[in-house]
Amino acid sequence: MAGRSGLNLTHSEPLKRFLCRYGKAHNWLEPAIRTFPPSALTQWAEGLGQTCFSGSSGRVFPTAMKASPLLRAWLQRLTEQGVQIRTRHRFMGWDGASLLFETADGQASIRADATVLSMGGASWSRLGSDGRWADLLTDEIKPFAPANCGFLPDWPSDFTARHEGSVLHSVGLTFGGQQTRGDLTITARGLEGSALYALSTDLRDNITSEKRAVLTLDLRPTLSVDDILKRLLAQRERESQSNRLRKALSLDVPSRDLLKSAIPKDATPLQLAQTIKAVPLPLIGMEALDRAISTAGGVHQAAVDEQFMLKSRPGVFVAGEMLDWEAPTGGYLLQGCFSTAHAAANGVLGWLESSNSAIA
């Protein structure tokens, strides 16, 4: 899925700011990301023949803008290194020290010197990432929750029917002291957009605890209240409120309808200008877990050591989105997966070395 509209591998912003994108997991993931930072991920891709570039937003992509060329080169390298890839295997848990798999030919048991589990989160079940593995690690798991997801606004039932598919262009969003800006798409279920995803953690947590969260929209973030007021006052008094908004500020129909639900028709120009800069939009739910771009929850920090080895199962390491961390879209998700995988791999090397030393 990540490569369908351009494979956003990572982000080129300064590392200190980059690390802050991981929120509560910042300190937990920082050692892994500093050891394998965005520059290392870019070099790895280019080492596989896939040149990369930074877009105007700072996001880093392979020049091919697809996942398939990188994947093919990666698989070829692994094959040359003697890696065996066994498909149609579902991990079923352990039988003592052996790993059990359900295969097309029946159950298989494998004894491994070390194991890395990288089984994804709980979204996109139709692609295999269904989170069913969590039943095997119940004591190490924090429940899954949607991240980078759409939200369900508390607006009139016919609003969606009238405006589904419309886009609120370049609006400002504020919640909990955080501000973002971007396009919002009105869907059959509610609202989606990268600017909204960036606030999803706090919005989700507030809805979970308070049953709602009030998002504030700035319909004209490049204009001040005074600028808007001057434009409104320059219109003829006989004009309807809708026409004044359209002519003075080029507000589209969905934006004007949002304002109608937030302010009375007889509002003064000043009240109208102030509301345009701060439209309250109550949100009462999140998109379903399986429709979220990514998930929070998974194996929590206390269940693993510094190398992401399970404390309850020595020699078993975990990596990627099955760990309990979340980040916004923009390259942070894949970077977190690659960095934790790199850390787990180094953990495996250290584990094997210490095991061999103990035997010797």
UniProtKB/TrEMBL annotation:
Its cofactor is FAD. Residues 1-346 form the RsdA/BaiN/AoA(So)-like Rossmann fold-like domain. The keyword Metal-binding does not apply. Residues 146-294 form the RsdA/BaiN/AoA(So)-like insert domain. It holds the Pfam family HI0933_like_1st. InterPro entries: BaiN-like, BaiN-like_dom_sf, FAD/NAD-bd_sf, Flavoprotein_PP4765, RsdA/BaiN/AoA(So)-like_dom, RsdA/BaiN/AoA(So)_Rossmann. Keywords: FAD, Flavoprotein. It comes from the Bacteria. This is NAD(FAD)-utilizing dehydrogenase. It comes from Gluconobacter sphaericus NBRC 12467.
